[in-house]
Amino acid sequence: MDQLPLLFEGFAQALTPMNLLWVLIGALLGTAVGVLPGLGSSMAVALLLPVTFSLEPTAAFIMFAGIYFGGLFGDSTSGILLNTPGNSSAIASTFEGHRMARSGRAAKALATAAIGAFIGGMIATTMVVFFAPTLVRLATVFGPAEYFALAIFAFLAISAVVSESVIRGLAALGIGLALALVGIDGPSGTARFTLGMPQLFDGISVVVITVGLLALGEVFYVCTRIHRDPVATRTPSGGRARLTLADFRRALPAWLRGTAFGAPFGLIPAGGSEVPTFMAYGTEKHLAKRSNDTEFGTTGSIRGLAAPEAAANATAGTAMGALLALGLPTSATAAIMLAAFQQYGMQPGPLLFERSGDLVWTLLASLFIGLVILVMINMPFAGVWAKLLTIPRHYLYAGITVFSMLGIYAISSSVIDLWLLVGIGLIGVIMRRYNIPLAPVLIAVILGPMAETELRRALAVSEGSLGILVDSPITITLYLVLATALAVSGVQHLRHRAQKVR
Questions:
Q1: Res. 422: pLDDT tops 50
Q2: Where does the sequence pass through the membrane (predicted)?
Q3: Phi, psi of 184 (to 5 degrees)
Q4: 144: which of 221, 289, 329, 454 fits an S-S bond (Cβ 3.0–4.6 Å)?
């Protein structure tokens, strides 16, 4: 247990008035930037990176700890309140979180997110401190075939198992894969579905698709229902920013399940937090069906928000461990953090613990402190954030539209992206009109390129033999679990259809 004395030394360095001030400033700045639609946590770290260069290394990385988790909470805040997640890690939290906000429980949703972020991040950071070498070894067993199996598992689990209708779920998956195919094919250099437009050679940005489907699609849909559905234009109350004992009991198992999903994925290169958050959301939706939870998909389920929120922060916590122990950035935010280390002449990896041990353990200690400070800040301010919903709806939706357009244009400076945003927003309206789920589109857009790349790599290694796709215990297990889940889901769908006929 050499880690404990080293961690205590890190706390001794971090728990100074000046360092605590840097964590506080980082948490506030990270949340403020992350909450702006179209920016998000990775943009928060990127924008604030130059600010830290004037600080000495320990203070800079302590401030980054606050920015790191503050940005993640900001992602969820904008998703819950405005249906515009700041980053893809908050997409799954948006589904039930925004429903809770619309039903007058915005402050409770933000409180659930804050506690979930704290629990997921705290458990994951503890695992990094004590089990980093063991956890990192698990990540090394994933090859191209395993990544492809994981993507297929996510595709079909979200589309067929989670969705109300298998056909609608697969249709949504097809829409997402079609959007993901736009651009230059990497291995061959062939342009696909670009209509001869150079602006589409890089594909359609995930941010454009996410903001278009969730934010602009919601704005357009409300506009189409403004005279038919007066309730849609009513401003709900923000509610109270506290969880009752019953709420806590319902959310706690979901927080723990979400953490269990998220922690391993932070160690997987290019794994990201999208898969565990959607898997956590899907698990809660499946459990809600079994327990007849009528809030799920209607007024918003606290469990459907708690699980993906804990999963996202657990992934972020172990991603920091992978960065420090292996020098391996497993997310965009971690990649920016790697650039920060290099700016100070340090290379994360096994030797970092020997050469800069004091800095590493101070950073790990500051991650714990940053999580505590975030809860202390955001629990009282949840009600304040929720006041955004008291803005008259015509002003609020106009503001969402303006921020969405400005955010997309700021990222790419491309008018084509603005037209794409409007077009995808109209697709979002049609999908809402015919009850086609949004989650499969987003998971296909995010994981589609990875699935294609890993499939090609696997087939290249095996010289075209398909046997490599089912040639390891991990792939066989994933496919067996998926087949079982599909079979169970099919039986349940048939039973529901038979009950409706009766």
A1: yes
A2: 20-39, 45-69, 109-132, 138-158, 165-184, 204-224, 359-383, 395-422, 476-494
A3: -85, 130
A4: 454
Closest CA to 363 of 348, 343, 378, 379: 348
- For 100-121, give one letter per residue: b (16+ CB within 10 A) or e: bbbbbbbbbbbbbbbbbbbbbb
Q: Is the Cβ–Cβ distance between 212 and 423 less than 8 Å?
A: yes
Give me the DSSP letters along 221-238: HHHHHTTT-GGGGSPPP-
Distance in angstroms (rounded) separating the CA atoms of residues 262 and 437: 23
Q: Cβ distance 478 to 484 under 8 Å?
A: no
Secondary structure class of 191 (helix, strand, coil) = strand
Give Cα 129 distance to the centre of its chain. 23
pLDDT score at 200: 84
Look at the block and give the residue holding tokens 């070498």.
Answer: 133
Q: Which two tokens stand for residue 158?
A: 């979200």
Q: Is 90 within 8 Å of 207 (Cβ atoms)?
A: no
Q: What is the pLDDT of residue 234?
A: 46
CB 329 within 8 A of CB 335: yes
Which amino acid, one-letter code, is at 131? F
Prediction pTM value: 0.70
> How does DSSP classify residue 390?
G
Query: How many structural domains comprise the chain?
Result: 1
**What is the span of the domain harbouring residue 377?**
3-501
Highest mean pLDDT among 1-5, 181-185, 403-407, 494-498: 181-185
Q: Which residues lie across from 423 on neighbouring strands?
A: none
Of 186-195, 467-476, 482-491, which has the strongest mean pLDDT?
467-476
Nearest to 266, CA basis, from 131, 165, 107: 131
- 184 pairs with which residues across the strands? 191
pLDDT interval class at 235 (50, 70, 90): very low
